[in-house]
């Protein structure tokens, strides 16, 4: 009788849920689009109905609403199916609880049902379902090494963050390259309720280097075997993921499966969906021993505390040593050894439903893991072909992956309501600085930009360069946005030395850049070009932040501070290295000036010598840079003297001077208060002068500015009076700061400004 009552109560509750959810949902969605009864506006530009920012924001809101509505509709359909099942049951069958929610997802050890397709959760008595507490931290371990894997990790993390409702703690076993990239990325991402710890993968190499491995993952593909030793001793459980994983659901569902482990089960794995471990794929194919089809280790649930008690370290080592006597090497890295251990100890494994690891390599049974899109949980691109793999539904999977690949990571900085985040000093300092700004100040947006933390992905592409041993090496430093991408190949042809570039891109543009670079023979042949992505945020182009990012990651003793629109003369790299020695830059404060010229022609026969350049100047093909609109910027270079100069000569600083210079790597940074157009280089040259740098013009060096359409920021400067007023205000504040820092010596800057 009690069972019947319980069943009726659940049926009534589910019925009310189906009726109420649509109304509540639409009320929530409507309320969520308002703040204090008014539409949320992020900036003045976004509030203009006809502005591109407003249109983009509206489009994003519409897409967000559509996604939410689809989610609710899916939940409604699931509840209706549940109701129809409940209505069809006799009272005698209503005592069990068969419902599943995101926090009650259960696996099964029934391999027969698994092979048949999607498996429902095991029945359990009322009050015994596994749950994930609202603010319970979920631990995720990932092995990551190198530049490409670091990019893959970002997409994986985005998919996890998109669905998550719990705090996350990522444990990243990374080499020095991946750690530098990902530490900077997470530090600048500033996602609430996310903690990241790094473990030095290079120190773990000795633990697994004795195992020959043919898999493309190399030695890092074996490091999941040593997680019980590597991860903190007080960490009891962890989800281990490959970098080529995409989540299509909340990871809390997978975390809840730990509660289903029984007895000595310590490993949660999905059956391998290819025939690899069955053997006979080709003549003399001899896989490692496995239980049936074996298990795939792209997604693993590890009960670390029990594994340690079982002496896992000793267990896998003995198994590997024994099998290597006959197999000689692993073909699938750690997966072979995990399967050999399970073959001997089948009680260790808890078999997960295969939708927790839908394996998209060629010739797999992955299509049996789902009947509908809503069945998908985790997609695993475990083929070397990755997105080019053959599968009946690969187009859908590819689009899902690309969605996260190009998804704006800034949108994932959302708070987990009701879950307190750990105190973060950087975040607290940032909030304090922002709170001190006056939001009624007409220049508030300019001032705020100075404190904006832009998500930054260093070394987006492979970088490999060892500076010259003679300590004369020079790196060209520049910054750019998507509209200047076409300049990259030309600069690489003119400058053979190392280059450090900061690119200001959206997530989608970063992927466009990646495809562009990978399709360019010129760019792919150069491994000494460092591409650092600074992701878009705010309404201004953070030009000086970009320069600082590019400067900070220069690996040579000297830097040539250029702009992306300039082509250096052929041979400038070697000429600058000789000039470094000639002018003793290592022991003196000097800034070597490279004279700047420009052409108004899109097609230019680039001068191969100074004599040829002078001839083109005389013919009117070339001009001194900005002579017709901003003479003061380069007039102190003294082009008349340069025409006949054969030795370097010194020039004095003058107001608004902004030459392109070669300096030591330890020179001061650019001032971040200057964004968009105006005074960004002028302020830096003024700072160099205040620090008593000598300005030396090189007699046989030159660079030429190539024509391009006006930037968005210069258009705003010319058309917006308030923009010019704010720039003037920032200049005055900068000069006051200079006076405070450099005292009496800085008075000349105020005088020069008043006289100019």
Automatic annotation (TrEMBL):
Q: How does it sit in the membrane?
A: Single-pass type II membrane protein
UniProt keyword annotation of Glycosyltransferase present: yes
Query: Which biological process terms from the Gene Ontology are attached to this UniProt entry?
Result: protein O-linked glycosylation via mannose
- Which keywords are on file for this protein? Glycoprotein, Glycosyltransferase, Golgi apparatus, Membrane, Multifunctional enzyme, Signal-anchor, Transferase, Transmembrane, Transmembrane helix
What residue spans carry the region label Disordered? 81-108
As its record notes, the protein acts as a catalyst of: 3-O-{beta-D-GlcA-(1->[3)-alpha-D-Xyl-(1->3)-beta-D-GlcA-(1->](n)-4)-beta-D-Xyl-(1->4)-Rib-ol-P-Rib-ol-P-3-beta-D-GalNAc-(1->3)-beta-D-GlcNAc-(1->4)-O-6-P-alpha-D-Man}-L-Thr-[protein] + UDP-alpha-D-xylose = 3-O-{(1->[3)-alpha-D-Xyl-(1->3)-beta-D-GlcA-(1->](n+1)-4)-beta-D-Xyl-(1->4)-Rib-ol-P-Rib-ol-P-3-beta-D-GalNAc-(1->3)-beta-D-GlcNAc-(1->4)-O-6-P-alpha-D-Man}-L-Thr-[protein] + UDP + H(+); 3-O-{(1->[3)-alpha-D-Xyl-(1->3)-beta-D-GlcA-(1->](n)-4)-beta-D-Xyl-(1->4)-Rib-ol-P-Rib-ol-P-3-beta-D-GalNAc-(1->3)-beta-D-GlcNAc-(1->4)-O-6-P-alpha-D-Man}-L-Thr-[protein] + UDP-alpha-D-glucuronate = 3-O-{beta-D-GlcA-(1->[3)-alpha-D-Xyl-(1->3)-beta-D-GlcA-(1->](n)-4)-beta-D-Xyl-(1->4)-Rib-ol-P-Rib-ol-P-3-beta-D-GalNAc-(1->3)-beta-D-GlcNAc-(1->4)-O-6-P-alpha-D-Man}-L-Thr-[protein] + UDP + H(+); 3-O-[beta-D-GlcA-(1->3)-beta-D-Xyl-(1->4)-Rib-ol-P-Rib-ol-P-3-beta-D-GalNAc-(1->3)-beta-D-GlcNAc-(1->4)-(O-6-P-alpha-D-Man)]-Thr-[protein] + UDP-alpha-D-xylose = 3-O-[alpha-D-Xyl-(1->3)-beta-D-GlcA-(1->4)-beta-D-Xyl-(1->4)-Rib-ol-P-Rib-ol-P-3-beta-D-GalNAc-(1->3)-beta-D-GlcNAc-(1->4)-(O-6-P-alpha-D-Man)]-Thr-[protein] + UDP + H(+)
Family note = In the C-terminal section; belongs to the glycosyltransferase 49 family.
- Pathway, per record: Protein modification; protein glycosylation
Q: State the protein's name.
A: LARGE xylosyl- and glucuronyltransferase 1
Instruction: Kindly give the InterPro entries that the UniProt entry links to this protein.
Output: Glyco_trans_8, Nucleotide-diphossugar_trans, Xyl/GlcA_transferase
User: Could you name the Gene Ontology cellular component terms for this entry?
Assistant: Golgi membrane
Task: Give TM regions.
Answer: 12-31
**Annotated compartments:** Golgi apparatus membrane
Pfam families found in the cross-reference section? Glyco_transf_49 (PF13896), Glyco_transf_8 (PF01501)
Give GO terms: molecular function aspect only: glucuronosyltransferase activity; manganese ion binding; xylosyltransferase activity
Q: Which domain of life is it from?
A: Eukaryota
UniProt entry tagged with the keyword Glycosyltransferase: yes
